[in-house]
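Let's sit down with a protein and look at its sequence and fold side by side. Which protein we use is up to you, so please pick one and set it down. Label the sequence line and the structure token line clearly, so we can match residues to local backbone shapes. Go ahead whenever you are ready, and we will take it from there:

***
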Amino acid sequence: MKSQEVDGDSVAWSAARGGAAFAKPVQDIDAFAALSWILSRSLAAARMTDEIFIQHVAIALCEVAEQRQLSVSASRQSDRSGLTLWQERRAKQLIESSLQKPASVADMATACGLSVAHFRRAFKLTTGVPPHRWLQDRRVARAKDLLKDGMLPLIEIADRCGFGDQSHFTSVFKKHVGRSPGSWRRASCALGNRETQADFTPRF
């Protein structure tokens, strides 16, 4: 026979009727605590509690614990994995299409269906660099293309590539390339001229 105290507990009755079906979704942290409390009270009143009832509660408790462990393991595995192919493609598209006024990391995370923290970790695992570094690399690459034109002022290139001003552009470019934008453009133009002259040199 069940004790009157346990009989009066609707949670305990649910466990007794449904056994393992009582196990709540793993995100409900109270499920484990409630089952533990019921089991401890039942064992304390073992003489007055139905043995089958105790078995049902114990089974439900084990299932909740197992579900929780599986959920934690899946979460840890997810944190260690990078972006999927479509997530990587989407994030890079957002960066590439908005170099002048880039999307925020929060926007990219939302587009990939991830939290900001998870997106940062996954992006770095996938590309080897954090999102802001990838953005800077793409800005510098775009700046190189514009510098090769040889006609655009540095201040306009800085604006087109999303740098705050020419000073910031020069600082970032030099950090990435090892020389200032003006110096790099002169060297690039000189190299281009030599290659052009070589192309038109008669060969006998």
The CA atoms of residues 1 and 51 lie 9 Å apart. DSSP finds eleven helices and no strands in the chain.
